Amino acid sequence: MLSITNPANGSVIAELPEDTHESVHAKFLAARRAQPAWAAAPLATRLATIRRFRDGIVAHLERLAAVLTSEVGKPIRQSRNELNGLLGRIDFFLAETERTLAPRAVFDEGGMVETIEQVPLGVVANISAWNYPYFVGANVFVPALAAGNAVLYKPSEYATLTGLEIGNLLHASGVPQDVFAVLVGGGRVGIELLKEPVDGVFFTGSYPTGKRIAEAVAGRLTKVQLELGGKDPTYVCEDVDVAAAAASLADGAMYNTGQSCCSVERIYVHERIHDAFVEAFVQEVQGFKVGEPADETTYIGPLTRSQQVKVLQMQVADAAAKGAKLLAGGHVLDRPGGHWFAPTVLVDVNHDMAVMREESFGPIIGIQKVGGDEEAVRRMNDTEYGLTAGVYTRDEARARRLLAQVNAGSVYWNCCDRVSPRLPWSGVRHSGLGVTLSTEGIASFTRPKAWHLRSA
Ligand code: NAD
Fold first, then answer.
1. Which of 129-149 are b and which e, b meaning 16 or more Cβ less than 10 Å from the residue's Cβ?
2. 299-347, pLDDT tens digit by residue?
């Protein structure tokens, strides 16, 4: 049985039977049988089910937000924000799928016609994370279903109730039961799923798990996409409005209790404004309301996973032992049964410290003083990750010059912790492989089939 607990207080919300080797295999076989008819249905029929799914999200938004908050600990207003943000992503897929997947004639001469058709991959596995379960799940299952695939969806064991809600809503919207199946369980069920001969593996989660998954399926030469973690840096130049930059970056570091793949994880500040920036940043962080996730005024909630408390404690202790100064937080909050960590700001940090090198995934930030642009770029690129990176400056040309030198999937000028459905979402190095979102993230769920047609 899988126990679903509330991370704010440790109370058990539900006990659910987990999928087994046999049930995973049965769901795979059923999906394999059901997929051709789903792919053969007109695209308009598949898009209509996605539109009804969107309507279902709107109709049940308050209840879905409450479920998400109860099992993940996401502050309730941020749960609503995620659901409302999902609507925009669905609208993008509804608007762009037909044009993106339309067959294209690329040559027509002397009786020879060449066309490209985008055909669905078949049955795909979607193994997902808990921190934004609607966003990261839908980045895969919405375009995958629209393109004509069957989806075996394994939500994170920390967002299982949300995963089951998604399944119910899709089925109520007209997606056949066997075309979208939810698998309940943790890593063991993920391993079982990967034993099945699926036609694509779409994973969102940590680098260590992503690597394990890529290795597990490597021999089969199956398409694999990995959306992984980051150690996302931002450089604050000396010409900024210090208070505005500090407010924006404190939110970028701590929103969702710092548990976003694109949370700001490292800040480099020009030496000329370093002290003023740090003062304004700490003031912002001290203004954040830590509290019960169901409370409307809460901004910082519990950590979703108990084991992350140890990671943050270790990063604080390591930094302190190597000379960092703690300006806020740095300790566990005593709230019975839950996993809570005070919003934490460290300065006088450097790259010998884990807090500047390893993903923190919590409400903690290291702020490092730099001498200028060249040092900032060098430090931003000194990482195994490459998901996002940002520069705050009034000077657009300077921002463009610096961001061009940064090796990351997404770059930000005067903004951070931002995802757009219109732009490709991808990481380099340990941040991932492949693309979701944008029209490329629709085509990801198809393969191009080449037609050579001679009329005579
Ligand atoms: P995780 O790697 O612990 O788990 C992710 C999923 O993999 C879960 O569903 C889990 O049950 C499953 N899993 C675990 N072991 C497995 C195995 N051996 N085989 C198959 N499946 C297995 O990650 P998490 O804690 O759920 O998510 C947090 C991580 O995800 C962070 O690193 C974060 O940065 C990253 N993330 C990345 C993005 C992105 O778009 N790049 C988005 C959200 C989260």
1. bbbbbbbbbbbbbbbbbbbbb
2. 999 999 999 999 999 999 999 999 999 999 999 999 999 999 999 999 9
| Residue 62: its H or E element | helix 61-72
Q: Which atom of ligand 1 is nearest to the CA of 227?
A: 41
The answer to whether the CB of 379 falls within 8 A of the CB of 370 is yes
Q: Which residues line ligand 1 (CB under 6 A)?
A: 127-132, 136, 154, 156-157, 186-187, 190-191, 194, 204-206, 209, 212-213, 227-230, 261, 359, 361, 387, 425, 427, 432
Q: List all residues 6 or more positions away from 437 whose beta carbon is below 8 Å from its beta carbon.
A: 89, 92, 139, 419, 420, 421, 422, 423, 424, 425
User: What's the pLDDT at 94?
Assistant: 98
Which atom number of ligand 1 is nearest to the Cα of residue 209?
Answer: 2
Answer whether residue 456 shows pLDDT above 80.
no
**R_g (Cα) of the chain, nearest Å:** 23
Q: Which of 18, 127, 418 to mutate to test the pocket of ligand 1 (most atoms within 8 A of CB)?
A: 127
Instruction: Examine the residue annotation and report whether 109 is marked as an active-site residue of this protein.
Output: no
Distance CA 251, CA 258 (A): 9
440 is an active site residue: no
Q: Name the residue among 72, 386, 447 with its Cα closest to residue 226.
A: 386
Dihedral sign, Cα of residue 190, residue 193, residue 195, residue 200: negative
- Pick the catalytic residue from 96, 157, 227, 265: 227
In a 13 Å sphere around the CA of 17, the CA atoms on its Cβ side amount to 5
**Phi and psi torsions of 395, nearest 5°:** -100, 105
Distance 204 CA to ligand 1 centre (A): 5
For residue 291, give both structure tokens: 């509290």
Atom of ligand 1 lying closest to residue 157 CA? 11
Active-site entry in 96, 237, 261, 292: 261
Burial 58-96 (b: 16+ CB within 10 A, else e): eebbeebbbbbbbbbbbbbebbbebbeebeebbebbbeb
Residue 102, Cβ neighbours under 10 Å: how many?
11
